[in-house]
Design a protein that fits this description.
Layout: H1 3-8, E1 11-16, H2 20-31, E2 36-42, H3 45-55, E3 59-63, H4 71-80, E4 85-90, H5 98-103, E5 108-111, H6 116-127, H7 135-150, H8 179-189, H9 194-201, H10 205-219, H11 224-233
Parallel strand pairs: 1-2, 1-3, 3-4, 4-5
Helix pairs in contact: 3-4, 8-10, 8-11, 9-10
């Protein structure tokens, strides 16, 4: 398929949630958009896998707490089989498993009470290859995960030489992030956007984008969401 055909083809979306009203509400919002095609609505992760294998959607809106198979396990399988990108649907007062879902490979998350504009922006951004990581939501996730770690065994610091410090972040290839890359990674983990990091470090936004790209490449992670996961696991979120 050519680039032109890819650009003109609607974004194929599968909605997965055990609440019919939630599924119907999202479907109604999406159905009026010319560039989005809802290919199905199902109530559990098992059915989601069946339809994903059948329809090959571009993106799945995935609930976490569902019968038969929850969203975490379903996300893991979807990502392992490269069936689609996944955006987790969550309510922060209920879902204790959001971070696990991100570790399973989700490309981002969205609050269930998100308005139409947020929903559409999220779908288009993730379908276009970006990670959906709203700074204000990210800060809440990181705060919750850090607090949880503090009450158990604390954050994981990984191999010797990893952890905090500009020259202490060792990449899978055995090299280290530069001092500036480490600084940017820490700010990404705090939930700052590229624009906010640029203001914080008195640098251009394009420069920050380059540093983020270098972090992705060196740490061998897929997207900005996985950078946050990496930072949490290596104790860089305090």
């Amino acid at each position: 398929m050519s680039d032109t055909e890819n650009e003109s083809r609607p974004i194929r979306v599968l909605i997965v949630d055990d609440q019919q009203l939630v599924r119907s509400g999202f479907a109604m919002m999406l159905s009026v958009e010319d560039d989005i095609d809802v290919v199905g609505e199902v109530a559990d992760g098992s059915r989601a896998l069946e339809l994903a294998r059948l329809h090959r959607p571009d993106l799945i809106l995935m609930d976490v707490q569902m019968p038969v198979m929850d969203g975490i396990e379903a996300t893991r399988v979807v990502v392992d089989e490269a069936l689609a990108k996944v955006v987790i649907l969550t309510t922060f007062d209920r879902d204790d498993y959001l971070f696990d879902a991100l570790r399973a490979g989700a490309s981002g998350f969205l609050l269930k009470n998100a308005g139409p504009e947020q929903l559409l922006e999220a779908i288009r951004a993730v379908a276009d290859g970006h990670a959906l990581l709203a700074p204000e939501v990210t800060r809440r996730v990181i705060a919750a995960m850090t607090a949880g770690a503090a009450t158990t065994d604390g954050p994981t610091h990984g191999e010797p030489g990893s952890g905090n410090g500009a020259h202490g972040i060792r990449t899978p290839a055995g090299e280290h992030l530069t001092e500036r890359e480490a600084e940017v990674l820490t700010l990404v983990a705090r939930g700052l956007s590229n624009a906010e990091i640029a203001r914080e470090l008195f640098l251009g936004e394009a420069t920050i984008k380059t540093h983020v790209s270098n972090c992705l490449s060196k740490l061998q992670v897929r997207d900005r969401v996985q950078l946050v996961v990496y930072a949490f696991e290596h104790g860089l979120t305090s």
